[in-house]
Amino acid sequence: QVQFVESGGGLVQAGGSLRLSCAASGNTFSSNGAGWYRQAPGKQREWVATISRAGDTTYLDSVKGRFTISRDNVKNTVNLQMNSLKPEDTAVYYCNAVRWGTPLYPWGQGTQVTVSV
Questions:
Q1: How confident is the model at residue 112 (pLDDT cuts 50, 70, 90)?
Q2: In what order do the strands lie in the sheet with 4-7?
Q3: Does residue 37 contact residue 45 with C-beta atoms inside 8 Å?
Q4: Of 49, 54, 66, 86, which is most buried, counting CB atoms within 10 Å of its CB?
Q5: Are 4 and 105 in contact (CB under 8 A)?
């Protein structure tokens, strides 16, 4: 069973930065794309960013220019650098392996990001 462990969340003021990391069991990320998702209170989980096996990246419009997704295939980790954070970025952030835009495995516990005004 593939497991994801997200870390790096916390409380930050608007305009601040956080760097999220995701570790996966096995060689999950080396053989798939990877994505970050988030779920705000009372809302459905939404996609945030994806990085393909080749390193191509795509982003939710509202985070373009502020967030950067990256991967380390040797360490089997995926990161999300978040700059210029806004209160509306407040959510629990999750990672997953992705193929054809679809998350492949059960979700981990996520990491809480809270942005204060």
A1: very high
A2: 4-7, 18-24, 77-82, 67-72
A3: yes
A4: 49
A5: yes
